[in-house]
Amino acid sequence: MKDESKLQLIAISYAKRALETGTRERARMLAYAESMGEYHLIVFTRKHDGYSAYVQDGNLHLYATNTRTRLGMMWQAFKIGRRILAQRGGDWVVSSQDPFET
């Protein structure tokens, strides 16, 4: 059950290593997620990177964009974020790694 009193965050990032089990990047994201209700991380990836489209680890939800082009990564990140907001509702914080890039 979702804790409505805790922060719900969608972040957009280049943190590909967060998609890999056992990495320092994943451990750091899990530590962040422990202090939140839900942490959804959308990671810019290309199809040839070979990442799973979705991974859940506790309340950390990881999404790979898996697109053919760099421009496609931004469009796919937007679509994933929009789908999360539509399915889950409520108040969210949206953050990006580099506001001029994303």
Write a brief caption for the model.
The protein is an alpha/beta fold.
What can you tell me about this protein's structure?
With 102 residues, the protein is α/β, with parallel strands linked by helices. It has one domain (8-96). The protein is 29% helix and 25% strand. The protein has 2 helices and 5 strands. The protein has helices at residues 24-34, 70-88, and strands spanning 8-13, 38-43, 54-57, 60-64, 93-96. Strands 3-4-2-1-5 form a 5-stranded mixed β-sheet. Strand 1 (8-13), helix 1 (24-34) and strand 2 (38-43) form a beta-alpha-beta unit. The protein is globular and about 40 Å long. The model has no long low-confidence stretch (mean pLDDT 91).
Q: What layout of secondary structure does this protein have?
A:
Blueprint: E1 8-13, H1 24-34, E2 38-43, E3 54-57, E4 60-64, H2 70-88, E5 93-96
Parallel strand pairs: 1-2, 1-5, 2-4
Antiparallel strand pairs: 3-4
Which structural class do you get from the secondary structure elements? alpha/beta
**Shape assignment:** globular
Spans of at least 5 consecutive residues with low confidence = none
Radius of gyration, rounded?
A: 13 Å
End-to-end Cα distance: 31 Å
Largest sheet: 5 strands, mixed
Q: Please, how many domains?
A: 1
Strand arrangement in the largest pleated sheet: 3-4-2-1-5
Order of helices and strands: EHEEEHE
Could you give the count of β-strands? 5
Proportion of strand residues: 15-25%
How many alpha or pi helices?
2
Which bin fits the share of residues in helices? 25-40%
List keywords for this structure.
102 residues; alpha/beta; 2 helices
